[in-house]
Design brief:
Helix content is about 35%, strand content about 25%. By secondary structure, the chain is of the alpha/beta class. Helix 3 packs across helix 4, helix 3 runs parallel beside helix 5 and helix 5 runs parallel beside helix 6. The structure holds adenosine-5'-diphosphate (ADP) and magnesium ion.
Length: about 230
């Protein structure tokens, strides 16, 4: 569960002050899949970074899994992050010095998964996302779309309770984008709570609720009509 109350974030540089988030309140219930949409610069990434414990808010409060995160020490934040959060970054954030295999494996090492299970899980998710033949490569040797799939694999490999995804299909063609959305849908079906930023109405249709942001504020929230599975007989 993600509960955000009146969260604000001000970026202060020498000359300008930017209010990236202005009293944002959002609740994502346990097991819910929520999308955030909104124009560039509306504060979507800032919000996700704070919820993902990679940045801190200026004021307000927020709880993850019923625990207050405002004021938590770095070390405690890091623990919550590693144990519970899978984060798909807009700019991938892959570790250049590590191979694709090692990048994807990292969350499993943090969580003390045995090496045989790690191998099986890395190979299985790489297969699913069509990057099996790239496991020995390094991030710089990959296309943008391949890097994005590695970022998705790394974020989701450990079945995190909370998934935060910042434009996870932004660099993908529709086939690879669908793989990513299917993976998210599967993890959602298994109980994950998901908060995703996207510009795609199609991707948003996989979620239960869409929140529209603008100028650091929540403009509206709407429930999405259920996707209808087309049954073939
Ligand atoms: P979005 O993801 O919706 O495109 P962002 O959250 O990236 O928007 O940015 C929201 C606002 O905060 C923008 O005006 C952006 O320029 C500003 N901003 C984001 N990160 C920083 C930063 N590190 N320093 C200063 N301003 C920032
Ligand atoms: Mg962004």
């Amino acid at each position: 569960m993600i509960k955000i109350n009146n969260l604000s974030k001000i970026f202060q540089t020498e000359e300008v002050e930017t209010k990236a988030l202005n009293e944002v309140s959002i609740t994502v219930n346990q097991g819910e899949f929520v999308t955030i949409m909104g124009p560039s610069g509306s504060g979507k990434s800032t919000l996700l970074n704070i919820v993902g414990l990679l940045d801190s808010a200026t004021s307000g409060s927020y709880q993850l899994l019923n625990q207050e995160m405002m004021g938590l020490k770095e070390q405690e934040k890091s623990k919550v992050r590693k144990q519970n959060i899978g984060f798909v970054f807009q700019n991938f954030n892959l570790i250049d010095e590590l191979s694709v295999y090692d990048n994807i494996e990292l969350p499993l090492i943090y969580n003390n998964v045995s090496s045989s299970e790690r191998k099986q899980k890395v190979e299985s998710i790489a297969e699913r996302l069509g990057i099996s033949h790239r496991l020995k490569h390094y991030p710089q040797q990959l296309s943008g779309g391949q890097q994005q799939r590695v970022a998705v694999a790394r974020a989701l490999i450990n079945n995190p309770k909370i998934i935060l995804a910042d434009e996870p299909t932004g660099n993908l063609d529709s086939k690879n984008g669908n793989e990513v959305m299917e993976l998210l849908t599967d993890l959602h079906a298994q109980g994950a709570t998901i908060l995703m930023v996207t510009h795609s109405d199609y991707d948003a249709s996989f979620s239960q609720k869409t929140i529209l942001m603008k100028d650091g504020m929540v403009l509206s929230e709407k429930l999405n009509s259920k996707k209808i599975d087309i049954l073939t007989t």
